[in-house]
Every structure is written in structure tokens, then in C-alpha cells.
Amino acid sequence: ARAEALLALADARRGLASAPSPEETRALVEALVEAGFPVLRDERGLGARLLDVFDGGGVRASARGRVRRLGELLSSHPFGPIVLVLSCLPERAARAEATRRLEALAALLRVGEREVTTSLLELPSGAGATDEVRVVLPAYDAIATSDAPPSTSSPSGS
To answer: Which residues, 6+ apart, have CB-to-CB distance to 111 below 8 Å?
Structure first.
């Protein structure tokens, strides 16, 4: 499942007509940090982490403002698609619930015409479920941000 998610992200990266410059990438990192979003930097690209956003099958009322704020921030950094990644258990019901959650989150982000895709990262059976969503921007090269300010993670993942 992880390999499938990485392939989907690589495909998204290859389909770009243009890519952000290192300066534009650093500006995105700075904006995420200023807004209080923990920054992710890995092989998939640059991104942010959201915690505690779901309640049942939808987005928790207390998290909606945070999600909208992230959508506004991402709209001002318009390169490439956005990939929402959520870990889930392999059982059919867990996958269906995770899919519903990601669809609700994607609808709330409101990033205009920009492509938002979802990806499930399957956890091994018996693993603890997680509520962490990784919001990945594959067009933004995480390596270009090595001298950017460090992430300011907060327990709430705001």
C-alpha cells in the first residue's frame, strides 16, 4: 500500500507543467510554520500534518476553521495537486470510513479548481488507528527546504 501511495505521488509530480522555485518552496514552509501547521518533508514532497480533525465520518466542527485556513494558505501556493493521505486498517469497513473522512476533508479544503486526490495508507492488522492526515504537495521539493525554519509542531496538529 505504501508503494502504491508513493507511485501515485510520483505520477502527480511528473504531470506538472511547471514547478515552484526553491524560493517559492521556502515561502510555503514559512507560511505553514507561521500558521501553526506542522511541516512534513519527505520523499513524497512537502506538506503539512493535520491531527484530530475527524468526528465519526466527517470533519470535527472544532477543526473546520483550521482546515479552511489550510485551504486558503494552499490556494496562495498554487503549484500542482494536493494529496491527502490517511492511514487506515486493512478491513473493508475501516477503508470505507477512511475514504468518507478524506472526501469530507477534501470538500472542506476548498482550493478552487486545483486537483485534490486522496490516498489510503494501509496499516498492518492489529495496529492502532491514527487520525493523522498528511496533506502532501508533491510539486514542492522537500529537499529545497533544508535551510527553511524548523517545524513548530503542536500537540493538536493545528
So the answer is: 71, 74, 75, 82
Q: For residue 104, give the nearest of 65, 54, 138, 66 by alpha carbon.
A: 54
The residues, ordered by sequence, that sit 6+ positions from 38 with a Cβ below 8 Å of its Cβ are: 48, 49, 151, 152, 153, 154, 157
Find the range with the poorest average confidence among 20-34, 73-87, 91-105, 134-148: 134-148
Alpha helices in 15-91 (DSSP H): 22-34, 64-75
Distance CA 56, CA 77 (A): 31
Check: pTM over 0.90? Answer yes or no. no
Helix (H, G, I), strand (E, B) or coil at 156: coil
Question: Which set of grid coordinates corresponds to residue 19?
Answer: 514547478
